[in-house]
Amino acid sequence: MKRILFVVMSVFLLAGCPSMLPQQPPVPVEPVTPTEPVEPTAPIEPPIEVVPTPPKITSINWSSAIQPLIREMAVTDDLVAGKLLVVDNIKNNSGGNIQAVNGTNTIIQSVNQISALQTVPYAQMMSARKALGLSGEDSLGLRSAAIGLARYLKADYILFSTVDGKKDNRVINMQLMSVSTGEILWNGRNKVE
């Protein structure tokens, strides 16, 4: 009952409050006399962006650096003719820009021409990398990832290559490993020009 009485009194109290706000006088409007027409300003042009110069890529004679190493690798006693070889992309540790893809292709061509090993076809390698979630262009920096890829491809050997040194003193290092044992079967090193 008290609640009802409270609600009724609240209604009367609120009904008695003035609901109109005091009115303010309107703002006086002053007439403006027209002046001379203003010429439109020229549109502001965005600043011209300068395209950065691409980094200079060093041209390397990959054949002269790689073929002697592949010849040396081909006469290793532990290699069995006809076995399958995975060629990892060349890893560039030289700090400069080199055409590593061309170097990797030269390694594959040299292995196919000079040694008795068979390289994994490019399409098969790319589909295996995709299946394992590995990037197609990256070097397999971790030996475990590379050996996992080689096992997935049922390869017998894997060949790692890195380019070290600075601009005028680059060296390519190659390392052949057995996939089944992880044993390093051969190491080679040659100057890159």
TrEMBL record:
One of its GO terms (cellular component) is periplasmic side of cell outer membrane. Residues 32-50 have a biased composition (Low complexity). Gene3D superfamilies: ABC-type transport auxiliary lipoprotein component (3.40.50.10610). The keyword Isomerase does not apply. It comes from the Bacteria. GO terms for biological process: peptidoglycan biosynthetic process; regulation of cell shape. Keywords: Cell outer membrane, Cell shape, Lipoprotein, Membrane, Palmitate, Peptidoglycan synthesis, Signal. Residues 1-22 form the signal peptide. It is found in: Cell outer membrane. It is a lipid-anchor. Pfam families: LpoB (PF13036). HAMAP family: LpoB (MF_01889). Regulator of peptidoglycan synthesis that is essential for the function of penicillin-binding protein 1B (PBP1b). PANTHER family: PENICILLIN-BINDING PROTEIN ACTIVATOR LPOB. Belongs to the LpoB family. This is Penicillin-binding protein activator LpoB. It comes from Proteus hauseri ATCC 700826. The lineage of its organism: Bacteria, Pseudomonadati, Pseudomonadota, Gammaproteobacteria, Enterobacterales.
